[in-house]
Design brief:
Blueprint (H helix, E strand, L loop, with lengths): L3 H13 L12 H4 L7 E6 L4 E5 L5 E2 L4 H13 L1 H7 L27 H9 L8 H16 L7 H9 L2 H12 L7 H12 L2 E2 L1 H12 L14 H14 L5 H7 L4 E3 L4 E6 L3 E6 L10 H14 L14 E9 L2 E12 L1 H14 L5 E12 L1 H16 L3 E5 L15
Parallel strand pairs: 9-10, 10-11
Antiparallel strand pairs: 1-2, 1-7, 3-4, 5-6, 6-7, 8-9
Bound molecules: glutamic acid.
The site of glutamic acid has 11 residues, from loops.
């Protein structure tokens, strides 16, 4: 049998191929000269499978797609408080290069607009790095997300630096508000180097898959950043990743995403996959025209919108009965499926409503295939309360889903 996903991708790429609307980024001379016909799309699953169609190994500069990853590095290196003191998390509703700072604090509104990204760049690495060391940290960090060594395209970097008047103006504003503590020119130079890192569509999909996989690169298995950082980054991508088209994107596509002016676009679907597309012609918001169309198709064809409400999970209580043996009566609860808060609440309610009178209560979780932390603690607390009421409580837990630390606090 032939694999299904590549055939699907080929079909969808064929459908958008003829759309020649939009323009390559005009304000960076080297990008304006890019081949506008290039088109590629890659799906990378969280277990490391890669499906790609089109120009998936052609290199182009990462541009603003570096922003969420540099934000992840800054959060990991400096901690949330230091980063949040300098960069907010509110969608600005404005264009990516708007000089949009909070009127009272002077903080850029979020790390996805240039003001926020320039500040974020300055927060990568420990305090006291030289600009060159910081760029090195950024390139190594981006490489860890991609799972291969990446490098800066010096030609594009020089081309952008030569016409970086607006970013320099933003950096000087930031310096005057005390948000940047260093020479604005050096920070912009570092930021533009960050934007000039060369990637392929395949790299971008792996980077997105690393976010989708709780910060673990699916191929190298390296934990690049921890889960709390990933949650913060995905939240900001979901609300601010598409600049002034963020609301349209959130409703129509519903995948945490980030675009770049070289034509790349990534989406990370938590727990499922990373998606990347490449097509250089941009719409008025600076987002890839055919990339946006591809994501709209992917989202609707495959139900990838994160707000899609899944069909109600199958009942978590599989059975509730009494077994009578030589040793007396036992109440036997058997649970199944994936248990999160709502499932655990259902289980606790079942136990309460049953009010077991039998001396022994068995909680059988052998058919439970996943349980999150709150559900695990709720089950332990239910067991503790049953024990307090005088029952002998036994877990049937062959896969050790519920490490039995009965002293653990629920809240
Ligand atoms: N290097 C670009 C800039 O700062 C990135 C913009 C983008 O990709 O949206 O202008």
């Amino acid at each position: 049998m032939r694999s299904i996903v590549p055939d699907y991708l080929t079909d969808v790429l064929g459908d958008v191929e003829s759309d020649a609307s939009g323009e390559t980024a005009g304000y960076i001379p080297e990008l304006a000269a890019a081949d506008p016909e290039r088109l590629g799309a890659v799906f990378a699953t969280v277990d490391g499978e890669v499906y790609g169609v089109g120009d998936i190994d052609a290199e182009f500069t990462i541009q603003s797609i570096s922003k969420p990853f540099a934000y992840a590095m800054a959060l990991a290196d400096r901690g949330f408080d230091s980063v949040l003191a300098k960069v907010g998390v509110e969608p600005s509703g404005e264009a990516f290069n708007e000089i949009s700072l909070e009127s009272d604090t002077g903080r850029p509104r979020n790390p996805m607009i240039n003001a926020g990204a320039i500040t974020t760049h300055s927060l990568v690495g420990p305090v006291g790095l030289t600009p060159a060391e910081r760029v090195e940290r950024v390139v190594q960090g981006l490489s860890a997300f991609a799972g291969r060594q990446l490098r800066v395209d010096e030609t594009i970097c020089a081309s952008e630096m030569a016409s970086a008047h607006r970013n320099l103006a933003i950096a000087h504003m930031l310096r005057s508000h005390g948000i940047l503590a260093e020479d604005p020119r050096a920070v912009v130079d570092g930021y533009i180097r960050q934007c000039s890192v060369l990637v392929t569509t395949r790299d971008l999909a792996m980077m997105a898959a690393t976010l989708a996989n709780r910060g673990v690169n699916p191929l190298s298995n390296e934990q690049v950043v921890d889960q709390t950082v990933v949650r913060q980054v995905l939240s900001v991508m979901a609300t601010c990743g598409m600049y002034d088209a963020a609301g349209d994107w959130a409703t129509q596509v519903g995948i945490p995403a980030k675009s770049g002016v070289a034509g790349g676009l990534i989406g990370a679907l938590p727990g499922q996959l990373g998606i990347a597309t490449f097509s250089p012609r941009l719409d008025v918001h600076g987002n890839s025209v055919r990339g946006v169309s591809l994501f709209e198709r992917f989202s609707s064809d495959m139900g990838l919108h994160v707000m899609e409400v899944p069909p109600t999970a199958r009942a978590v209580v599989r059975s509730n009965r009494v077994r009578t043996g030589a040793d007396g009566a036992t109440r036997l609860f058997r649970f199944q499926g994936a248990i999160r808060f709502a499932g655990a609440e259902r289980i606790v309610r079942e136990i309460l409503e049953t009010a077991p009178s039998e001396p022994r209560v068995v909680l059988d979780v052998s058919l439970v295939h996943s349980i999150d932390d709150v559900a695990r603690r709720m089950l332990l607390e239910a067991a503790r309360r049953l024990a307090q009421d005088g029952h002998e409580v036994i877990f049937v837990d062959p896969e050790a889903m519920i490490p039995a630390d009965l002293g653990e606090k629920l809240w």
